[in-house]
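Hi team,

Below is the intake form for GntR family transcriptional regulator from Pelomonas lactea. Please confirm the fields before the structure is written into the shared record.

FORM ID: S-0412
PROTEIN: GntR family transcriptional regulator
ORGANISM: Pelomonas lactea
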Amino acid sequence: MYLQIVEQIRQRVAAGDWPAGQELPSIRALAADLRVSVITVKRAYQDLESEGVIVTRHGKGSFIADAQDAAQAVHRAELDAHLAAAGRIARTLGIAEPELVERLRNALNDKEAAE
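The structure came back. Fields below:
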């Protein structure tokens, strides 16, 4: 459920549905609406804040971060997820780190050549 909360907020920010400065539901209110633990929502908000997607102002609530910062944070999180998946696949295939790095370098060079 925690991951679903994080992904839903990321998607809404990336799609532009939630503009910078929009207030998010309080942790307690969202937990009650979703019928999950307050700890689950708090963890999701903390991760989103550490990614730069939201900002929390003590006593005021949580808000969508500056549009450019939030969008960049969403894209960085997406990149991190893809890289983690690539790492898992490489381990499954027995590909060592130097080969994985070389494959990434080749992929970057192929992309630049195509542009």
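SUMMARY LINE: The chain has a mean pLDDT of 87.

Thanks, M.
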